[in-house]
Amino acid sequence: MHMALDEVLLGSVIAGVRRATVRFWEWIEPALVIGSHQSVRNEVDLGAAQRLHFTVTRRMSGGGTMLCQPAQTITYSLYLPASAVEGLSFRQSYAALDAWAVRAFNALGVPASYREINDIVSPQGKIAGAAQARRRGFVLHHTTIAHSMDVALLRALIRLGRERVSERGVRSADKTVSPLSWFTSSTCSETTRHLERSFAEEFHAQASELTASDVKAARELVASKYGTTAWVNRLP
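Now predict its structure.
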């Protein structure tokens, strides 16, 4: 549903039905989310994923594999016209669209900064990673934040540094992770609320809700695309 909602909401902004939007995700089950140009066989230890009850899915944006867990991971998506990053290179757009989050983390006392091309980091490692998709002059930019996790799970579930099984597909980068919980006592939900308030104050955003048609369209996309093995296991 999260993968489908990204496509639906980007389409709504493109069509002018919805203004530029930010959406904060809440996870209800553990998931490994691979990038659109990745191979499941290269990226995921399927035996470990099954044993640890992780769902494997594929998103519409590029980048590497995201490890997501309930009450331990925060993700936000931005849907906006490309004019918002006009004059910036592709690389520069990542930092520009995540700069507000870095400032929000700093306000919590987290020593966060940006590392090209798409990471929010601390001196001890990666806090968050971003990915993008661009369609018809509009941008989907989303960032997944490790609030708290057993970092050993990354190597158990994602085939970092292991030999290729398939010649096709972009590999995930092998980076040290430093979850937010190493630097703040704020819970995952408290941190999410802080990010929401920070975004709203900085950009004068107003609250909105998913419409019935948004949810219906997303469910249809789950049935026809994002929930199918053909989509998840396709070779890039």
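Residues 90-107 form the longest helix (18 residues).
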